[in-house]
Amino acid sequence: MIIVSGQWLRPQDIENWQIEQHLKPLLKEMIETPVQFDYHSIAELIFELKLRMNIVASAKALYKSGAKFATFLKTYGNTAYWRVSPEGALELKYRMSPSKAIRDIAKNGPFYAFECATAIVVIYYLALIDTIGEEKFDASFDNIILYDWHYEKLPIYTETGHHYFLGDCLYFKNPEFDPQKAQWRGENVIVLGEDKYFAHGLGILSGKQIIDKLNSFRRMGAVQQAYLMPQATRLDVPSLYRIVR
Hints:
The protein has a five-stranded antiparallel β-sheet with strand order 13-12-11-10-14, with helices on both faces. The protein has a three-stranded mixed β-sheet with strand order 2-1-3. 34% of the residues lie in helices and 21% in strands. The model has no long low-confidence stretch (mean pLDDT 95). The radius of gyration is 19 Å and the shape is globular. The protein is of the alpha+beta class and 245 residues long. It has a domain at 158-232. It is built from seven helices and 15 strands. Helix 2 packs across helix 4 (116-132), helix 3 (98-107) crosses helix 4 (116-132) and helix 4 crosses helix 5. The protein starts with a strand and ends with a helix. It is an enzyme of class 2 (transferase). It comes from Bacillus tequilensis. One of its GO terms (biological process) is sporulation resulting in formation of a cellular spore. Belongs to the bacillus TGase family.
């Protein structure tokens, strides 16, 4: 369900809305779900719809970029924009444009390798640039470090439940992973719709395909299969909207 300024938004309330056609299925889904989304204004709601669609597009762009999966100690990036810390963090170089550096990952993917949580943050940044533009992004996110779930001012939260939407980040857990391949203890993914997910290092796959891949990285004698955890990680759009507007 959607609450705008304390008022419940009903399906009939949006019949005459002049919004882009590709946003309407997501809007309808969010109205009909038991998950509650709260906004201060219609502008915030439209911002979320556009951002979620851009998250999906950014996940596909990262997949097509050729950026590789790597553990923290084997992380690398385009040295024109980034330096790599001893811990495996990509640190934006002094006076470099944050938006251009982030866009470079999608443009020159073969120059990059990082793990899956970092990939999710990269996708969020790419989507935000496409939503608000480079100038606003650079003004709001001027000290970027790409490392695991490290993010600058992005308001991110995780909520339990079984209702997922386009652009959500989910987690497939592999409880009996091979200790020699600990990077496969689980996989962060972006929901693309129609049972398709982007999983950095694995590709664009169905839920079953991701579970089968993770099962192949279990320890000897393992009996418990990998599984999708009942939770979703999302951007807190009302908070983000106040940061970037």
